[in-house]
Q: What sequence folds into this?
């Protein structure tokens, strides 16, 4: 169960990601109170957070190209070092009383770009740190570390803001970026395989798009999560607190969110032990549970019902996240993996603002209860749509040491856009990427989100309760 920890590169990767998420738990709390102390305006807070999120979404595809072009360890170390500088600047202006909203907007946007560079590299690096037969366990252990970091970060953030102020909370966040950068130096990741001719960014994006669209199960799940995340962003993040205010109270809502995090930890422990042939089918089916919290808010907003629902959601999310990361790593060539992840992240996040904006007017028109029921219905339909794909239902986990037996519809596009030395060389590269020839490389690192896409993780739930598909 803990076998991946025997690998030095994986240990450094897991440590770096956990420290990253510790800071990610502190940052939203500290930033929120820093802005509210400055102007007292929720609108200003939304602008500062939104600037960062927007830049992450705009640059995430470029981040995928970068992570497939140069050593991923270099990307992770560099992006975390830059993140430490930008967050230190935010902390400095808050602590010295020189902060202004335009200045915070600019620094937040810069941090969003840094986040966009780090996330695809982080997600794509994980498979190189352990042998193929330990990949599922490695993903589960990383998720456990991420959730532990988020729990500790949220608790530390509240204490820091209350005890010494938001500026020092932001300073701690900057320090976690620096510590993570040091940890990632211990992750030895080989550069992507050399190409016979260097292509441009647009050509690389086309190759990534070809890889993304070549596998029906990939884009079917991402489309499903586009709908699912929009529903959760509006229903849980916006309507959830409003319903809680008039029923279980604000402290009760905090207990519900804590229960979801506990569920994620339990789910990670379960994912460590699960062995099924159709792992993605199991993970997607578990996402029906995402409707439970919406239904509880609509029909029975009591503390017992909502805690039980949140616990179930947390367990389910982790089954999907581990299944997704394992499936992607087993079936996508290593030298294009970051680009496929970047399209995944873009598709999974892009509709979230729509859900957050639309849910208010909709609730005002038909009522919060009916809106939540409609959102729960959309979640069920989205999961059903994913399961309607034959490829999603039938995708099998790749046996250790064997390449994925999957049609390469993207090969023709790749041949036109980025020629390789020979067909035989490409076949050998792909077989090694999916099989065991990573022995020559000393494994990589990963990180992920978006709950505050600043350090967002993929499908599992950092990004504002969003899951990346």
A:
């Amino acid at each position: 169960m803990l076998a991946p920890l025997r690998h030095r590169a994986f240990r450094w990767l897991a440590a770096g990601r956990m420290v990253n998420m510790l800071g990610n738990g502190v940052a939203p709390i500290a930033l929120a109170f820093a802005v509210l102390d400055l102007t007292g305006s929720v609108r200003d807070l939304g602008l500062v957070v939104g600037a960062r999120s927007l830049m992450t979404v705009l640059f995430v595809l470029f981040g995928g190209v970068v992570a497939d072009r140069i050593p991923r360890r270099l990307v992770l170390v560099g992006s975390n070092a830059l993140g430490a500088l930008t967050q230190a600047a935010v902390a400095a202006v808050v602590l010295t009383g020189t902060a202004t909203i335009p200045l915070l907007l600019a620094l937040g946007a810069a941090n969003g770009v840094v986040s966009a560079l780090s996330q695809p590299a982080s997600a794509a690096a994980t498979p190189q740190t352990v042998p193929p037969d330990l990949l599922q366990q490695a993903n589960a252990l990383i998720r456990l570390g991420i959730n532990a970091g988020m729990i500790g970060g949220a608790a530390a953030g509240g204490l820091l803001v209350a005890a010494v102020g938001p500026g020092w909370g932001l300073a701690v966040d900057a320090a976690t970026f620096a510590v993570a950068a040091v940890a990632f130096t211990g992750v030895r990741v080989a550069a992507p395989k050399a190409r016979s001719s260097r292509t441009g960014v647009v050509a690389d994006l086309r190759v990534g798009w070809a890889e993304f669209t070549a596998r029906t199960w990939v884009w079917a799940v991402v489309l499903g999560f586009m709908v699912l995340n929009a529903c959760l962003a509006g229903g849980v993040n916006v309507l959830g607190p409003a319903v809680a205010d008039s029923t279980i109270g604000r402290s009760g809502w905090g207990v519900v969110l804590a229960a979801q995090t506990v569920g994620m930890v339990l789910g990670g422990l379960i994912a460590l032990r699960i062995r099924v042939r159709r792992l993605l089918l199991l993970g997607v089916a578990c996402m029906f549970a995402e409707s439970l919290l919406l239904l509880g808010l609509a029909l029975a907003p009591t503390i017992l019902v909502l805690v039980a629902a949140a616990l179930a959601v947390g367990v389910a999310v982790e089954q999907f996240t581990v299944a997704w990361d394992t499936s992607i790593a087993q079936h996508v060539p290593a030298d294009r993996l970051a680009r496929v992840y970047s399209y995944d992240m873009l598709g999974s996040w892009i509709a979230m603002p729509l859900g957050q904006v639309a849910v208010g007017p909709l609730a005002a028109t038909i009522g919060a209860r009916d809106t939540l029921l409609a959102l729960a219905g959309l979640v069920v339909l989205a999961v059903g749509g994913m399961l309607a794909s034959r490829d999603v239902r039938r995708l099998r986990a790749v046996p250790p040491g064997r390449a994925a037996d999957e049609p390469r519809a993207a090969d023709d596009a790749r041949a036109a856009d980025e020629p390789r030395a020979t067909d035989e060389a490409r076949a050998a590269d792909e077989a090694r990427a999916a099989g065991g020839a990573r022995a020559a490389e000393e494994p990589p690192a990963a990180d992920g989100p978006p709950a505050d896409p600043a350090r967002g993780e993929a499908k599992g739930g950092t990004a504002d309760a969003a899951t990346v598909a």
Q: What stands out?
A: The first helix runs from residue 8 to 39. The radius of gyration is 21 Å.
